[in-house]
Amino acid sequence: MVDLLTGKNREYIPNVAFKAMTFIMKLMDVLVQYSRKNFETLELKPGQTVIDYGCGPARYIEFASNAVGNAGRVIAVDVHPLAIAKVKEKIEKQNLLNVEAVLAENYSTPIGTEIADIVYALDMFHMIEQPNDFLKELSRLAKRDGTIIIEDGHQSRTDTIQKIEKSGFLKIVQEAKSHVKCQKIT
Fold first, then answer.
1. Coil, strand or helix: which one is 49?
2. How far apart are CA 135 and CA 112, in angstroms?
3. What are the domain boundaries of the chain?
4. Which residues have CB under 8 Å from 153's CB, separation 6+?
5. Which of 44, 51, 145, 157 could pair covalently with 119 via S-S, beta carbons 3.0-4.6 A apart?
6. What are 129-163's pLDDT values in tens digits?
7. Of 104, 65, 63, 69, which Cα lies nearest the Cα of 83?
8. pLDDT of residue 27
9. Mean pLDDT across the chain, nearest whole number?
10. Beta-carbon count within 10 A of 96 CB
C-alpha cells in the first residue's frame, strides 16, 4: 500500500532490485530448473483461462501458454512496469498469442470478474501488506468453481494459512509442498 510519508507503494520494489531478482531467478532456472519444476505442480489444462498474479519477470509465462494451448488464455498481472515489459517482450519473442500483460495498481486489476479457472500467485504473497484486499481481488478474478493457488514464498506455511483464513474470502482445499490450493467461499 502507499506509504503516507513518501506517497510510494511499499510493495513496489525499485528497478535495480527487480533486475537483481530477475538475474537470480534466471540463475536458479539454469542451475536447478526451478521454474519448470515449480510450474509442473500447478496442473494447468488445455483451454483454461489462467491468471499469473504477480508474474514478475515472466518466468512461468511460456509454460502457462503451452499448458493452456491455443484454446486457453494466460493473463500476466503485476504492479511493476518492468514486469509487464518483460511479459510483452516474451509474448513478441516467443509468439505467445494466448498471453496478455496487465498492469495492476495496488490490488485493483482492470480485468473482468469471475473469468479465471486458475489464479496463481507464486513467490510473492510474503510481500503483500494488505492480504485481505489482495485475497479479495484474487477471489473476484476466479470463477465460482475456480482454483486459487498461493505459494508460501518467504514466509511459513502457518503465516500463509492464517492470512487466508483471516480474510474470509478463501478456503484451503489442498496443501502441497510449496503452495496451497484454495476455492472461493460462496
1. strand
2. 16
3. 15-184
4. 122, 123, 124, 125, 126, 127
5. 51
6. 999 999 999 999 999 999 999 999 889 999 999 99
7. 104
8. 62
9. 87
10. 20
